Amino acid sequence: MAVAVPCSGSISTIAPPSPCEGATEPTASWRRVALRRGSAAGRRARALTRTDPFPQRPSPMTDHPRLYTSLRSPYSWFAHHRLKHYGFPADELEIVPVFPPTAEVAEAMSRGRTKGAYQRADVARLAKAYGLPLSGRLADDCDWWRPHATFLWARDLGAGDAFLDRVFAKRFAEGADLGRDDVLATVAGELGLDPEAAVAAATRPDLRQRLEAGFEQMRADGSFGVPTILYRGELFWGNDRLEWFLRAWRRAHGEEVPDLSKDPLARPF
């Protein structure tokens, strides 16, 4: 069965791997239940709150934008497309790939009939507006470690941005399963890279360790979802906050930005 609702950058969160594997931030409804003293659900909600894997903390200052992205997320795909359209230099971005570490977490993130219907409509609406072809049937969730590890391998060879172009298109425009060896090999071949090495990279322990380090970096930065950009101590979460990152970027580089107090409906940058 196809996954009806892929990870939403502006809606869903991503949990880190062990020791917090499978944990997600308590929802607002759980927080309300927590007020009911003595209930089992309330005790569970309070326990989740105490073990929140993404505690509030100041985000570190950095002049080099750090982008948390996921090959699972259509909103990460949209943000990648829009940054390229803007002409933002790829070498200015520190890209950190993250994803649901287990199938159980991925399923939990996609649960909910009403939410799922909204997300499907929203993704279709945005893809149409951006002129991006969208497959009517997405592949099932795969072992997300594999394509993200192969991305790191491709980036080490100087083909990271081109790899993202192709795998985002494979997943969302063609409905391909990014966990399959033949898909990874095909993408590598299209980029002039070694297909066999691409498949081998999917399970390399050193690349997995780097992915795990990315989760830890995400937690340290106070980020909790994708796409998120960290820039100069500010977090910009979601495809719909991309304009606000560009506003901060342009202002930091001495460019004029609109005065939104005079026109709240103006473009932010």
Explain what this protein looks like in three dimensions.
The protein is mostly helical and 269 residues long. The chain has a single domain (28-244), classed as 3-Layer(aba) Sandwich (Glutaredoxin), CATH 3.40.30.10. Helices cover 47% and strands 6% of the residues. It contains eleven helices and four strands; from the N terminus they run H-H-E-H-E-H-H-H-H-H-H-H-E-E-H. The protein has helices at residues 28-34, 40-50, 74-86, 103-109, 113-130, 145-156, 160-173, 181-190, 195-201, 205-221, 242-252, and strands at 66-69, 94-97, 228-231, 234-237. A four-stranded mixed β-sheet has the order 2-1-3-4, with helices on both faces. Helix 6 crosses helix 9 (195-201). It is globular and about 55 Å long. The model is unreliable at 1-56 (pLDDT under 50).
Which architecture per CATH? 3-Layer(aba) Sandwich
CATH level 1 class label: Alpha Beta
| Global mean pLDDT | 82
Gross geometry: globular
Radius of gyration: 19 Å
Number of helices: 11
Largest sheet, in brief, is:
4 strands, mixed
- How many extended strands? 4
| Poorly predicted spans | 1-56
Record the strand order, biggest sheet: 2-1-3-4
Corresponding CATH superfamily = Glutaredoxin
Strand content: 5-15%
Instruction: Give the distance, in angstroms, between the N- and C-terminal Cα atoms.
Output: 42 Å
Please indicate the count of domains.
Answer: 1
Structural class: mainly alpha
Order of helices and strands: HHEHEHHHHHHHEEH
| Helix content bin | 40-55%
